[in-house]
Amino acid sequence: MTLRSRFTLFTVFWLIFILILYNIFVYFFVIRVTTRGELQLLTNKADLVIDNLRKQDMRGLEDPKLLTDLYNYNEMLRIVTGDLRVANQVGTDEELLTIPPQMQPYNLSETRHINGQRVLYLSVPFFDQGHLIGTVEAARRLTVLDSYLQILIGALSVTSVGAIVFAIFGTYWFTSRLTGPIGQMVQTMREIDRSGKLYRVKLNGREESVELQQLVRAFNQMIDRIDRTIEHQKHFVADASHELKTPLTVISSYTDMLKRWGRDNAEVRDEAIEAIAKETERLQHLIRSMLTLAEAEQDDWMNVSRFDVTSVVRELSEVLGKTFRREIRVHSDNAVHMKGDKDKVRQLLLILIDNAIKYSKEPIDLRIRQSKNAIKLEVSDYGIGVPESEIPFMFDRFYRVDEARHRSTGGSGLGLSIAKKIIDIHEGTVDVYSKQGNGTTISIQFPRK
Length: 449
Ligand code: ATP
Ligand code: MG
Fold this sequence. Notes:
The protein is α+β, with helices and mostly antiparallel strands. Helix content is 55%, strand content 20%. It contains 10 helices and 12 strands. Residues 289, 351, 355-356, 359, 381, 383-386, 394, 399-401, 404, 411-416, 440 line the site of adenosine-5'-triphosphate.
C-alpha cells in the first residue's frame, strides 16, 4: 500500500469515527433538550387543570371547559378517577384516545411509540386531603419535533459526507505534495541504477517542508560523496598503476640487460641483480601499503584494547634505532594508557619514525604526554623538512614532496595516508609543524576515553 493511500485511509477512518461520535452526541442531546421542553408544556397544562380543580374544591370534574381551554390539536387531555373511569376527556386523535387510562400516586412521564411515531405521555395524580382522587393524563404527538429531527439528521449527514469527501481529496492532495519529492527521488535512483551515472534530485522551489528539503539535500550530499569516492578511486587506480609500472619497467630492462650481457660481464650481472632486488623490494613495499589501505576501508578494521603507549614507543625506538643505527630519544612520563588498536598505533608510530629516519640525519625525539582529555604523541626530526605549501598534501595517497622523490628514498607515498586512516579511526587529530631545512614535528592527539 502506498504511503499516500495509507495516510488517506488513516485520516478518513479517524474522521468517520469522530463524526459518528459527534453526530450521536448531537442527535441525542437535541432529542433530550426538545423533549424536556415538550414535557414541561404538558406538565404546565396538567398543573393548571389540578389548580382549577382545587379552586372549585375538586368538584365539576366532568366540566368540559376544564380541559377544552388548554387543548391543542395534536394532544389528548383527560381526567381519570377511581376505578380507572375516564371522567373528562378532549382530543380528536383516535390513537391517543386509545391509550389505556392509568392511576398511580406519583408523577409518571414517558415517551411511547404508537404506530412507529413518538408520543409523550404524562400522568399527574391529584389528592383531596391526602386521598388519591384521580390523575390528569396528557399525551402529545411529537410529530413536529420528529420532523425537525429528520432535518437535523439530513443536515448532519450532508455535512459529514461533505467533510469525508473533503478529507479524502484534501489528504490525497496534501500527501501527493508531501510524497512528491520521494517519488522524484525514487525515479532518480532508478535512473542512476539504469544508466550507471550519478544524478542529483532537483529541489523544487515551492517545496516548503523542511524535512523533505533535508531529505533531498541529504540524498544529494550522499550522491556527491559517492561521486567523490568514485573519482578518488579512479585516481587511486591510475596512480597505483603508474607506481607499479616504474619498478616493473626497471626490472624488465635489467632482465633484458642480463639476457644480453649478463653471462659474460660480471659487473653488469651484479648491477642488474642489485637493481632487480631493490625494485622487487620496492614493489613488495608498495603492494603491502596498498593492501593495508584497502583493508582500512573495511568497517571491522579496529581491534580495541587498553595498552601502554609508552612501552610501545620504547620498544619501537629501540628496534628501529638499532636497525638503522640512529639515536632515537624517548621523552615520556610514566606509563600512558590508552584505548585503541595496539597494532595500528604501533604501525602509525612506525610510519612516522620511518619518515623521520628517512628524511633526517640528526637524532630523533619522541614525546608522549597526557592531559585530562587527551594523549599527545610527537615525532620530531631535524632533517630536510617540508615546504609550508606542501604540508596540506602530505597525507594524500602517493604524494611525495619533490625533493624527497628525487632523493629516491624508495618511499611509495602511502605511509602518511595509512597513518591518517589510523588517526581517523581513533578519532584523533594531527598537526604538522615543519620548516624546510630545519626539521619536522608531527603531533598527534588522541581523545582519552
Ligand atoms: P612510504 O612511507 O610509503 O614508504 P613516503 O615516506 O614517501 O613513502 P609518506 O610517508 O606518505 O610517503 O610521506 C609523504 C611525503 O611527505 C614524503 O614523500 C616526504 O616527501 C614527506 N615527508 C613525510 N615525512 C617527512 C619528514 N619527517 N620530513 C620531511 N619530509 C617528510
Ligand atoms: Mg613514509
